[in-house]
Amino acid sequence: MDAKERLLRQAGYSYHFDRLAYVNREARKVFAVETIEDHGEDWLVRKLAEPNTSGAWKFYDEPAAGIRRAFVTELENAEHTHR
Amino acid sequence: MPSIRIAEDYLRSEYVRLLPAMQRTAIAVETEVRHLLLGLTLDLERFERVVVKTRLKDSESAIDALRRRQPYGLFDPDHAETYSLTALPDLVGVRVLVFPPRRLDEVRAALAPRLNGWMADPVAATARGSDLIALKYSGRWTDADPVRSEVQIVSMLVGLFWEVEHSAIYKPNPNLRGIARSMEMSQRIAAVETALREFEIEFQRIVDDASRVF
């Protein structure tokens, strides 16, 4: 398995293939595949360790406001469905 | 009553406007590619193949391809009218399937003068590898062409694998395309492509050896 994929899985991330991103609902953090590909493992380890205490979703990279809104709505609708 | 159009609505209208130009370009690109390859094609051994295939992206595939190029695979609803299918590199696509792989260079050389100035996108067998399994070029067939075309030169088995993968999995479910971008799946795809390429190279080696003996 790819080393970065292993790191993401160990940290509780799942691949969201329609959004081309790795998502951790508990940590409320999202990594775009492109961003992961553009950085090394050291960067990924550092970013995975970053706490997210804001209560809001944290994106690596931060999208435009409209895209953030649409994606967060999807994530939160799915959260309600799964409850 | 206000009209609320999403990006897909604008893009479907644009597709209808672009379609006649796409059809003309497809005929022009295919005809010229076949013409440039004619000498080479007539010179092939019985077991060798150079096959030219042309396709136009259909409306929904084109819109989905453009969506997947956006951050997080989403059109920005605040700027729905700003997207254009002309940003795609391959609304018109011509694929040249070549067997055995030693003919790839000859095909590339025959087409190179016509593709001069186009954007080259070589496809390596693996993410870190230097062995090429395909060459992709994108550009406008004429300066006035509103759409961009892509010419691919690819080894036969890899090209047919891409066709099977596309028609079996992605054509009925375009949103599954994102699966191929997962890091683990990328490795699996590279392994299949490498195996097919090695098959072709070994096939060619045995034919070459035999031709030296007989």
Write structural notes for this entry.
Chain A is of the alpha+beta class and 83 residues long. Chain A has one domain (3-82). Chain A is 49% helix and 17% strand. Chain A is built from four helices and four strands; from the N terminus they run H-E-E-E-H-H-E-H. A four-stranded mixed sheet of chain A has the order 1-2-3-4. In chain A, helix 1 packs parallel to helix 3. The termini of chain A are far apart. The mean pLDDT of chain A is 91. Chain B has 214 residues and is α+β, with helices and mostly antiparallel strands. Chain B has a single domain (7-213), classed as Beta Polymerase, domain 2. Chain B is built from five helices and five strands, in the order αβαβαβββαα. Chain B has helices spanning 7-42, 59-68, 103-115, 156-170, 183-213; strands spanning 49-56, 92-99, 119-124, 132-139, 149-155. A five-stranded mixed sheet of chain B has the order 1-2-5-4-3. In chain B, a hairpin with a 7-residue loop joins strand 3 and strand 4 (132-139). The longest helix of chain B has 36 residues, at 7-42. Chain A binds chain B through residues 1-2, 4-5, 15-21, 30, 32-33, 36, 59, 61, 63-67, 69-71, and chain B through 68, 70-74, 76-79, 175-179, 181-184, 186-187.
Average pLDDT of chain A works out at 91
Task: Report the principal-axis shape of chain A.
Answer: globular
Strand content of chain B: 15-25%
Chain pair forming the biggest interface = A-B, 25 and 21 residues
**CATH architectural label of chain B:** 2-Layer Sandwich
What top-tier CATH class of chain B fits best? Alpha Beta
- How many domains in all of chain B? 1
Neighbour order of strands in the largest sheet of chain A: 1-2-3-4
Distance between the termini of chain B: 81 Å
Provide keyphrases for this structure.
heterodimer, A: four-stranded mixed β-sheet, 4 helices, 4 strands, 49% helix, globular, B: 214 residues, alpha+beta, Beta Polymerase, domain 2, five-stranded mixed β-sheet, 5 helices, 17% strand
